Amino acid sequence: MATVTGPVTGGVHGRPFGRPLVDLDRYGYVEEEFFLEGDATRYRLVGEMTRDGRWTAEPAASAPFRTRVVVYRPADESQANGTAVVSWNNVTAGYELFGGESLEMLENGWAFVGVSAQKVGIVGLAPANQGLRDWDPERYGTLEHPGDDYSYDIFTQAAEAIRAGDLGALRAERLIAQGASQSAGRLCTYINAIHPLTRAFDAYLVQIWFGSGTPLDVGDAVVNINAMPAEPETNRRLLQGSHQLRDDLDVPVMVVNSELEAMPCYDVRQPDTDRFRYWEAAGTCHVSKQSMDIRVPKYERDFGTALPVMEKMNRIPLMPLYDAALHHIDRWLRDGTAPPSQPKIEFAGPGEIVRDEHGIAKGGIRLPQADVPVARNSAIPLGNDIFSILYGSCEPFPVEKVRALYGDRATYLARFEEAARAAEKAGVLLPRDVEAAVEEARATSPI
Questions:
Q1: Among candidates 290, 248, 90, 69, which has minimal Cα distance to 166?
Q2: Taking 70 as the threshold, does the pLDDT of residue 234 lie above it?
Q3: How many Cβ atoms sit within 10 Å of the Cβ of residue 442?
Q4: Where does residue 379 rank: exposed (0-12), middle (13-18), buried (19+ CB within 10 A)?
């Protein structure tokens, strides 16, 4: 088991990298960072990565590591709800992306633990070198990572440290592992191959997953989003799922996908069970304008430069779905009430989404922006580069079309709120997110 030191203080910046922009004091939360070090295990696959996800792994080697975990928890321990989200921090961009801003967590006493499980988070990618060690060599200069093959066990050891009460005053009875995008692929490999060996987590929330896991042994290979070529063949490989999640797990698993990931997952869809839920939302994409509104000021604060944002990128946020999923998973663990099953996006065949007269996907979860549209939001890209693929598109309707659909502003807003309340009743929006969506519709209404 790993040794924990901290809370960590000092450094050039005097704070952990990637902290949320929200005022933690306002919610009665504290931020703490710890170093985790020891020997991590590398695993190898026994057999093949079969389509059913029932994989077998075994230990292959070990190597020393020293990484960090960052913790957000209620300052008053009596306000903690006993559930911790354990984030596999995403490093595709060459630096760590993780949450902590979720109002579902901050308003309800959850803990959040961000784990630097992968090597790029520590050493970065050339030539930008935005990893932890370069960002603050005084604070993070002693961190060492033997490679991503060891990331699975590093993630496990972070969970063990939480269970042991080694991360300060953090106490948690329930651990929900969370991973998005590249981290979702690694988390799915963890589910299929490592969970049966460790049983370190009580539930898994997999977000924007492309239907394939990461091999256990990738050596020095890393994902570099900035080096991906703008080639249609590359895009086609991205949109091809290869396996399911094993259906013999003893803990709940939930997948929340946008329209973009629904395409590669089409061929590997699996039915909901008493341990599995799969959601996909029409009109959404991997990244939304609203999520970039959070990411951009963080980037500018941490790196001192602007982060370009594509015009006409998708404008239906997935964050409210993530919060609804967390709400349901916590209840699932507490009293066995599973999240509501949801309709799937309609397909005419692999990669062929059925669209309505507005170009919006049929079926799936219907958020109010898709059900009462003033624009065509979709996963349809505006270019062949990877950023265009991930950002999708938003094409506003002409004002004349909006008036023809709704007549006047009051009617549009009334119908939008009705759709938002329907989404709340379906269990995919929480009340606070209904109010936020309606307020955004008021502020951005074209009529």
A1: 69
A2: no
A3: 13
A4: buried
* Length of the chain, in residues: 447
- Token look-up 């990893």 returns 131
Is the distance from CB of 107 to CB of 76 less than 8 angstroms? no
Cα distances (Å, whole numbers) of residue 249 to 102, 184, 200, 276: 27, 17, 12, 9
The model's pLDDT over 122-162, given as tens digits with 9 standing for 90+, comes to 999 999 999 999 999 999 999 999 999 999 999 999 999 99
Write out the two tokens for 177: 């592992």
| DSSP codes, 192-245 | IIIHHHH---SEEEEES--S----S--TT----GGG----HHHHHHHT------
118's torsion region: left (phi>0), alpha (psi -120 to 50) or beta? beta
So what's the pLDDT on residue 233?
63
Please name the amino acid found at residue 18.
G
Backbone angle region of 427, left / alpha / beta, with phi > 0 → left and psi within -120 to 50 → alpha: left
Q: Is the peptide bond before 127 cis (omega within 30 degrees of 0)?
A: yes
Cα 93 to Cα 29, 37, 57, distances in angstroms: 28, 25, 29
Q: For residue 359, which amino acid is it? A: G
Which residue from 225, 154, 166 is spatially nearest to 190, judged by alpha carbons? 154
Domain range list for the chain: 1-212, 228-447
The predicted model scores a pTM of 0.97
